[in-house]
């Protein structure tokens, strides 16, 4: 997986903090620097190999538009602004995307993914090369843990446990901690193989050893079944002829 080296340029602390958090949650982004001063940020672009800049437009000393004109083609840019008036400027400057504050994580992720595909277009395999089967690719996911990307084999996952601002992915080989939430993991994992059984838990169906009243046993761990998830879970188990 390609990883984009990112920089945030914004003179306001709250957007700076929010975007920092969003980047940490996104596996294919690596935060290299943050700047409140666009002139200092311009030096960073010139001195380091920055792929993508999340750039505010209205800033003292140097506007976002002037920043792009000076930076040239050294990096790609996503505008982050509270004003709609600059959308045409963004189009003329060929920015990757235009995010209006306040920025949701879903909208941020869409823009970041667009930047990834812009910088690293999907290559067409040469005739002599064998493309990776889609089924094989679907058996692996990457998560950011301890400042690095960790590859996880989906069939090795036992269950996933939500812990406030992060999750613990329990596998046959150990536990991986990552800044993510249970809902997002539920969307990524194959629905036929995993079930949300609690606000804080997702389980691998084929790893279930026993269901005892309102709990599930996996590798001697007792996982609660939430009342609001119980009916759907039992229907899923029935559909797999497990009951």
From TrEMBL:
UniProt keywords, alphabetically: Phosphoprotein
Tree of life domain: Bacteria
Residues recorded as bearing 4-aspartylphosphate in the entry: 56
All copies of domain Response regulatory, residue ranges: 5-116
GO molecular function annotations of the record: DNA binding; phosphorelay response regulator activity
UniProt keyword Ribonucleoprotein present: no
SMART domains in the cross-refs: LytTR, REC
Domain spans labelled HTH LytTR-type: 141-213
Protein name stated in the entry: LytTR family two component transcriptional regulator
Organism of origin: Chitinophaga niastensis
């Amino acid at each position: 997986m390609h990883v984009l080296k990112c920089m945030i340029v914004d003179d306001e602390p709250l957007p700076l903090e929010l975007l920092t958090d969003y980047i940490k949650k996104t596996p294919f982004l690596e935060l290299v620097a943050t700047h409140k001063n666009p002139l200092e940020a311009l030096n960073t672009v010139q001195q380091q190999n920055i792929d993508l800049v999340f750039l505010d437009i209205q800033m003292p000393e140097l506007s976002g538009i002037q920043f792009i004109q000076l930076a040239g083609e050294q990096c790609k840019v996503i505008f982050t602004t509270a004003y709609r008036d600059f959308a045409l400027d963004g189009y003329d400057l060929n920015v990757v995307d235009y995010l209006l504050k306040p920025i949701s994580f879903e909208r941020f992720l869409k823009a970041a993914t667009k930047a990834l595909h812009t910088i690293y277009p999907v290559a067409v395999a040469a005739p002599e090369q064998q493309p990776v089967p889609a089924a094989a690719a679907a058996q692996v996911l990457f998560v950011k843990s301890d400042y690095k990307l960790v590859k996880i084999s989906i069939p090795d996952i036992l269950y996933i446990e939500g812990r406030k601002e992060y999750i613990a992915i329990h596998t046959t080989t150990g536990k991986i901690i990552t800044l993510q939430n249970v809902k997002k993991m539920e969307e990524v994992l194959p629905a036929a193989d995993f079930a949300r059984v609690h606000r804080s838990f997702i389980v691998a169906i084929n790893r279930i050893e026993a269901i005892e009243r309102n709990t599930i046993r996996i590798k001697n761990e007792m996982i609660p079944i939430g009342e609001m998830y119980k009916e759907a879970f039992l229907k899923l188990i029935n559909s797999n002829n497990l009951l």
